[in-house]
Structures are given as C-alpha cells and as structure tokens.
Amino acid sequence: MTRTQVGYAAMLEQFAPSDAVRFSSLAEQHGFSGVMAADHFQPWVPQQGQASFVWNVLSAVGQRTSGDLGPGVTCPSFRYHPAIVAQAAATLEAMYPGRTWLGLGSGEALNEHVFGGYWPEAPERIRMMFEAIEVISKLFTGEVVRHDGKYFTLERAKLYTRPPDDQKVPIYVATAGPVNAKKTGKFADGLITVGAADDKMERIWGKYEEGRAEAGKAPGGPKLLQIHISWARTDEEAMQNALVEWPNGGMAFFPKQDIKNPEDFEGIAKLVRAEDFANRVMISSDLEAHCQQIQHYIDMGFDEIHLHNVGRNQTEFIEVFGKEVLPSLRLT
Q1: What CA dihedral angle connects 77, 81, 84 and 85, to 10 degrees?
Q2: Active-site option among 13, 40, 228, 308
Q3: Domain membership flag for residue 26
Q4: In the chain, how many domains are there?
Q5: What's the CA gap between 122 and 12, in Å, rounded?
Q6: DSSP assignments along 211-233, one per residue
Q7: What's the CA gap between 245 and 312, in Å, rounded?
Q8: Catalytic option among 93, 108, 112, 304
Q9: How much is the mean pLDDT over the chain?
Q10: Is 101 part of any domain?
Q11: Fewest Cβ atoms nearer than 10 Å: which of 72, 104, 264, 326?
C-alpha cells in the first residue's frame, strides 16, 4: 500500500499564473506533496478573475517543485483535440519523468463552448471523452496512429517527443457517478473525484473496481480526491470567502456543466446561501475539524488528497496547515 499524499490544488481560475506557481512551491516547502492544477478557459464567476493556460503553469510548477503534478482536469474533446492533449502530456512527462499524470473530464460549457457549435448532453460528452482516451492511449505507444472514429480522426500521427524509457503517462478520469466510474476502471489508470457522502463514494469505488476487473486489471488503482475547504481565522470570514470567492461550490441544484458564461454564474451566485455549501465545502476556522475531515478520506483509502482553500488567504492557509494540520494526519 502506498502512503497517502496530501497535495495542493492550484486554482488557476482564481490566481495569476506566477502566483499559482509561487503558492505551489510554498506548499511543498510546508509539507504538501504534489500539485493538481485547474484547467479553465474562463473563471466560474468574474470575481475569481483569472484563467491561465494550465500546461504553461504546470511546466513552471515542475521547475519549482519535486512532487507529482497534473491537470485537474482537462477536457480532451472540444477546445482541445485529443492529439494535442497527448502531445502536451507526453511533453510534460518528458520534462519531469515519473512525476506527471493526465487528469481528464468530459467538459463544461463554461470552458468548451468558446468555439461555438452544438453542446451535447452528458452521455454523449462522456462517449466523446472515452473515444479521446482511446486516441491518447494509442499515441502514447509511440507508434504511427490512424484513427477514424465517431468523433475524432487522426491521419498518420505520431508523438516524437515522449518520456524516457517509453514511460506511459497515467490517465486519471474525473468521476462522479457509477456508470462513468465503471468505464474509468476499464479504460483508464485511475480516478479523480471530489468530496461526497460516504455511500456515494462506496458506489463509485465499487463500480470502478468492477471495470478494472472486467479489463483484467489488478484491484485498487490510483484514486485521487480534491477537497474544497474554506479556512480563515474566524468562521464569519471563512463563510464570506466561500460566498464571494467560490459561490459555485454552493450550486448543487443548478446545471453547472451547461452554463456558458461567468456572468450567468454570477447571477446564480446571488441565490447561494450558507446552507448550500453543506457536504460540499468544509467552512470552518476550526483546524481540528479540517484535520478530521482529511483524516476520514485518508482512512477511506485515497492515494492523493489535494486541498483547495477557496479564499485569497493562500499563504496563511499553506503556512498554518503545514504547521498545524499536516503533521497531525496519520498517512497510511
């Protein structure tokens, strides 16, 4: 069994690229291990204010840190062709051998609608993503690839810049439901999810293991978790940070994947109340409460847990958690 890592979530929709790199480096200096960087073309709401190109930022993070790193998550189906995603991931792994992973998701209209065209329903987006994974996996072999699928075409493509010793970049898929979890187990190397109720987690894990078994894989593939929290010196400040900086965390009952503009999310944010963050964002000034939540997910068996503090107080969060929370965790 591998030892659980607690890493830093670099939210590029909130922070300028140079700041995200600096926070990632500072996090490692204070005991965090690994970086998960968000891939956004636009922020959720205008207040967040940023949306830098994730592959540029990850390249810089790799220079300033020594842990693992990857995008959490990239959609390989709309604004990127899967061949370009494969090239980006292979290049990053060539630069930082043995340290990178490729996180993929089926996409959100906020980021993917920018080229116009039809925005499909979720089942079709998922089918597109898994065909994209097929394309990316073929290219990772280093062979000349031709592909004539339902959604994507390749005409004699080959990756010439690849990791040393033919190292394969592991593909992790963002998974929030049982159907997707089973396909993830079957066609990908690991899963990424966010904090949820224990029974939902158990269903996702069960279907994920079913998929791995059907594909002849050993049980227990990599499982990554991203936790959204709001920590500040007072509960009032922590709540205000969540409402102002991360209102999308309280939008459980809205079709977030189909909304195209930050201004529309801003309008919805006016309807978000404190109770809407329940079971979605841990909002508290109590370090022990945060420690207990993280420990719970460690005990569940996650391999990596990446923490996203939604406020602007990143330096204070990193320093305080590095000193008072991370040392208290029992990393199994």
Answers
A1: 10
A2: 40
A3: yes
A4: 1
A5: 25
A6: HHHHTTPPS---EEEEEEEE--S
A7: 8
A8: 108
A9: 96
A10: yes
A11: 264
Q: What type of residue sits at position 184? A: T
Q: How far apart are CA 241 and CA 237, in angstroms?
A: 6
Task: Answer whether 0.90 is exceeded by the pTM.
Answer: yes
Query: Does residue 157 lie in a domain region?
Result: yes
Q: Do residues 159 and 142 make contact, with C-beta atoms less than 8 angstroms apart?
A: yes
Residue 276 lies in a domain: no
Which value, in Å, is the radius of gyration of the alpha carbons in the chain?
A: 19
- Look up 121 and say whether it is catalytic: no
Catalytic annotation present for 40: yes
Give the per-residue pLDDT at 296: 95
Instruction: Specify the amino acid at residue 178.
Output: P
**Position 328: which residue type?**
S
Domain enclosing residue 296, as ranges: 5-232+286-328
| pLDDT band at 198; cut points 50, 70, 90 | confident
CATH code for position 160: 3.20.20.30
Given a cut of 70, whether residue 285 has pLDDT beyond it is yes
